[in-house]
Amino acid sequence: MKLSMKSVKGFTLIELLVVIAIIAILAAILFPVFAKAREKARQISCASNMRQIGLATLQYNQDYDEAFYPHRFNCAGTCTEYTSGANPYAGLDAASSTKFYWMYLLQPYTKSFDVFKCPSNPAAFTSNNTGNQKLAAAPGAAGMDYGGQNSYGHNDAFLSPAAPFGAPAGTASTPVSLASIQRPSGTIMVTDATYYGVAPDATGESGITPNYNGTPDAALAATDAAFMVVPGAQYAHYWANIGNANWTFNGGVVPNGALSLAQARHTGLVNCQFVDGHVKAIRAEKVISDICLWATDADGAHPNCN
Length: 306
Description:
With 306 residues, the protein is of the alpha+beta class. The protein has helices spanning 13-63, 94-97, 102-110, 218-228, 258-264, 284-289; strands at 72-74, 99-101, 152-155, 188-192, 197-198, 269-274, 279-283. The chain has a five-stranded mixed β-sheet. It has a two-stranded antiparallel sheet with strand order 1-2.
């Protein structure tokens, strides 16, 4: 009687290496896809935050005779709003605690500070005296929580004037009225940013020619650039706060790579919330260079924007 032995087959080394190579190739293909999908989800969450900011702004408009808020106002000493009532935020440094910023002005309408945190920004805003130390050494931006930054910036060029930073407490700013905005569905109010104020690049500092719906107009751009810097020369550089770019108000030179950083938060896109409340993702280059997205005709007509 013969006993048959079944041979046991296994993988050869070559076969094993081929399988590993195939898995590595698939991983190389799929991982970037997963990363993009994850970032797309974050971008959508960020856009939802902005929609809530837009709704809160419209509520603020109704309460204040259709006037928009300033990006900040000056308090007499420490702002009592930080230490009493619904805003118990003691512990801010001296520079921050004497200014009350637009995030705090909207908080009674949003009922939360979480809407001011972009999930794609690791240095997102916090409403207490921990976590926001990214800009602690920057002159003019010293301290934790300064400006309620580091996720969203307001259209400081045309929509949110404030009294000079060093002006006496209570110095009035001239608010912008809803009725004075000719293009509410086309005028940016808030964008992704690392500072509480943003603006277009009206001087071509970014390397992109300023334009109006794609049409360059050097004379009008010069007029807009002059209008933007009336409150302070720093506003000419505030385009470099958009997205993940981080110039802030430090009196320095716009950093190399600011344009790339502006493109970095949402894979080339910038979430923008408009005056009418809607939110749209736009290519960073267009947000920075197309002045039609920002202008209100406060300094004259913008015929190519209509």
